[in-house]
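Diaminopimelate decarboxylase
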Amino acid sequence: MDHFLYKNGTLHAEDVAIPDIAASVGTPFYVYSTATLTRHYRLFTEALSPLPHLVCFAIKSLSNVAVLKTLGNLGAGMDVVSGGEYLRAKAAGVPGDRIVFSGVGKTRAEMQLALTGGIRQFNVESEPEMRALSEVATSLGVTAPVTVRVNPDVDARTHEKIATGKKENKFGIPIARASEVYAEAARLPGLRVVGIDVHIGSQLTELEPFEQAYLKVADLTRRLRSEGHTITRLDLGGGLGIPYTRSNEAPPLPTDYGALIKRTVGDLGCEIEIEPGRLISGNAGLLVASVIYVKNGEGRDFLILDAAMNDLVRPSMYGAHHDIVPVAEPAVASPTQEFDVVGPVCETGDTFARGRDLPLVAEGDLLAFRSAGAYGAVMASEYNTRPLIPEVLVHGDHFAVIRARPTFDEILNRDTIPPWL
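Structure:
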């Protein structure tokens, strides 16, 4: 469910008409719904109750500080994978004891940043990283709480670029080696083992891979406890998928996911941490663009938009589908036509959809890409010297620009000319 509905023939974000935002900020732009973000976060907290738990939003899916503050004010923790994301979480007012630091390549500088600023735990992904963290923590005279991310060799049955739980993936340590790695963690100064971490991938549309992984984590918890380790937290990662089409097929609900967690690891007396990103932010956002031209080609017709692959890279990078709808509601049984929906970047890869059946539109009409809140703005670039597009947050009948479109002067002034030129 989201809060982007047609009212009186016009697509609205909550109670704000999309054309009103377009008139104010220009196109293209991203718009997010506070009500949808709030609802989706609360679905997870309700699904895990009454287990002790913390829902840590995966910042990598949508990192705007206003969005993070919206969720942080509800009690959300944050899952960060870089020093920059850590600083975004802090800027949003999220305390360090609700921030989890994940990622395979944490630098010593990032470790120091988190240890001095406050951190709930590091999800350690390798022995070299664990040793480096020990050195940094010891040099600061502090103790770093850690989990070790285990790789359970479970096929998440998702896109190969976002599968993270198979043995050939770069993430975590083989679960078969967990005992020796935890033994080393217990010996190293400056570290305190608090739990186990696992994350098998993103955009999972069935529960069975989660169940396979979590049952392995449950067995590992019992084994590590028998070996003398204190395991009080289980970080189970994120990855629950969202429906990118309006078909009848839908991924499992957070309630089903919560029931699975309770069934597999709920009897271990551990605090449960999960790191959802896409399911909280994905359907909470739209990308809105204008039609520049309707071009008739040989054997196909094109809608050329003012949005491009640099604004939304998912279709080019993953072959991803986004529903595309006109902002002006089409009449019932209105005629449609097949279009290739493309952007203005000088690459054939700058294509959002091929042969998409859409209502007839004209130059200047507004189109909305649904389910664009996750991995949209965060993956955008200034390719072709196209400015990053505005981000807008809606709350009821109010909206605010939460990231402005930079001017060309601002973009050019970041470049410097060396003295010999």
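The mean pLDDT is 94.
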